[in-house]
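Continuing the series of single-chain predictions for the mutant panel. This is the parent chain; the variants come on the following pages.
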Amino acid sequence: MRDSKTKNSDPDPNGCVRDTVITHSRLAWRRERARAATAGRHGLQALPIEGLAARLAGGFLLPIDPNALKSAIAQTLSADLGDLDRIKDLPGFPRAAATTLSKAWTAGLNLAELAANASSKAASRLAAVARLETEVIRHLPPSMCRPADLVSAALQRTTYARVLFGRIAIHGRTEMSPIWRPLLAALAAETDVQWVAGPRYVPSWVHELGITVVEAPRETPEILTVSCASPRHEALETLRWARELIATGRARPEDIAIAAASPEEWDDHFLALSEMSGLDLHSYTAGKSSPPPTVSLLLQLPTCCCAASATRAWSGSQASFAATGNS
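Parent structure:
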């Protein structure tokens, strides 16, 4: 079975020149953009599912931003929230309320209807959450819509799906919230939609909607553990391992990643050994937009490979690394 990259690069018989990838997180979104830029895939756009719904809905509609949601909740604290009045002044209330509303929205729950049909014991709490939802929506920018509102508007414009998105591939998911499933079903009737599962589990409803599933066998990397006496010894063995992969042709330099959860202990050793060995190391620190002057985390990100051809991580005084050999 061909992978998604090969299939998406095939010419479309209907003349579509645009491809869309639905990502599941911001990190996955950045990865898809980097892969598209490296491969020169013009016309590829990466979007979360809520971004795709907002784009199809048209106008200036946007999904609800998490920061805007918390800000709106903070502005509702002066309102009468029923049962929630007892806890609304606690420090963690805005975050907990934002999580509750987000989960209710992605599950497609109508809070007002649930409160009206609930038993007397649960009705007061559901009514309070429904009241909170009403107040929050009142304080949100008019352009920001709940998932149900985005889906409802997008379903009225599915005829534009092929022009806006071309072929759609859903990457890296094992499930999708119920609120988005009717939209996927409508999109599948208008354009080519693929569920690129790889080795992951595929939910049954994907097959029921008639969405094409692209699967791949599980990776079985070779795992080798090396016990080292000191951080400098770990850094030395790591560079030996990287040089061996390059010299034997098992991996290219850009396919090799060297990473640690807390890399400060190895910084000086890698900096010195890099100069001694002549191996250029690209440094990157998670959460920072630009590398620091010193080597905080020595990492050559594999932007083009589907799975890391070679990865290495440390735990205590042990160095463990794996290589698939299929760079």
